[in-house]
Amino acid sequence: MTTPSLMTNGALIVAAVLVGCGVGLSIWASLGVARNLLTSAVRMAIQLLLIGNVLLFVFTRSSVWLTVLVVACMFAAAAYEAGARQTIRLPTVWHFAIGTMATFTGTTVAVLTGLLTVLHPHPWYQARSAIPMVGLLLGNVMNATSLSMNALLSDVSRDRRAVEARISLGASRFGAMRGVMRQAIRTALLPTFNQMAAAGIITLPGIMTGQVLAGMNPIDAARYQIVLMSLIVSGNMIGATVAASLLTLRLTDARGRLRLDRLKSV
């Protein structure tokens, strides 16, 4: 027996009207974001409808290989997005390799922790549990990785003299870059900390809201959200730290020299 749909075509029409109002407001106020807003809205709708159909197909097949394929595609897209926003970057191969490694590490640790110790789906790779969990954590870790990379690359370019001064005084590569790394990781985690601080007082997180609307006991929904937020912050911290560490290794050499010649602007 299928569950009746809570969203009708009328609800989608309302959503389209709201986006149209935003576009109209942008044109009226000369904000210059009408095209981006419309493009983003159309892209979002297409992507979500496509993934909805893909997930429906995967969930009804119960194939571990289909689950792996979907997760692999998600990781590939996230790795690209994590490294696509920086104006100062390493050559393409190195840049996306570091973004991929950081995003993959943070997400994998958090997802496996959640599936094996908290959620306990049977089997643990069950598509209905694994894919949504990967999607939730992957997006957050991708953002943290991207922010960490962007902050470190920008700061090390700006503070080059200070880093080189520490190296000349005998500091190791990580010792000379410690301040830049620390600031990059803090910058990457700031949105997560803000989200955690506001949860329950200023806003109800999305997962908890969805579960309450679906009929779950609010206390159970709150506990579920606490676990998910803990997984998100741990995954973000791992991803941001791995990204900053790998960039530091690439921007210095075994002789302790700062190698900004390995950077390029786009």
Provide the descriptors you would attach to this structure in a database record:
266 residues, two-stranded antiparallel ribbon, 9 helices, UPF0014_fam, membrane, ABC transporter permease, transmembrane helix
Q: What is this entry, summarized?
A:
By secondary structure, the chain is an all-alpha fold.
Characterization of the model:
The protein is mainly alpha-helical and 266 residues long. It has 2 domains: 7-61, no CATH class; 64-262, no CATH class. It is built from 9 helices and 2 strands; from the N terminus they run αααβααααααβ. Strands 1-2 form a two-stranded antiparallel sheet. Helix 3 (64-82) packs parallel to helix 5, helix 4 crosses helix 5 (127-158) and helix 5 (127-158) packs across helix 9. The longest helix is centred in the C-terminal third of the chain and has 34 residues, at 218-251. The termini are far apart. The mean pLDDT is 85. InterPro entries: UPF0014_fam (IPR005226). It comes from Acetobacter malorum. Pfam families: UPF0014. It is found in: Membrane. The chain crosses the membrane at residues 12-34, 41-59, 65-84, 96-119, 131-153, 188-214, 226-249.
Count of individual domains: 2
Structure summary, number of beta strands: 2
Compressed to H and E, one letter per element, the order equals HHHEHHHHHHE
Shape summary: globular
**Helical content (DSSP H or I, runs of 4+):** over 70%
Query: What amount of the residues lies in strands?
Result: under 5%
Sheet/helix structural class: mainly alpha
Distance between the termini: 54 Å
Mean pLDDT score? 85
Largest beta-sheet characterization: 2 strands, antiparallel
| Contiguous runs where pLDDT drops below 50 for at least 5 residues | none
The order of strands across the largest sheet is: 1-2
User: How many distinct helices?
Assistant: 9
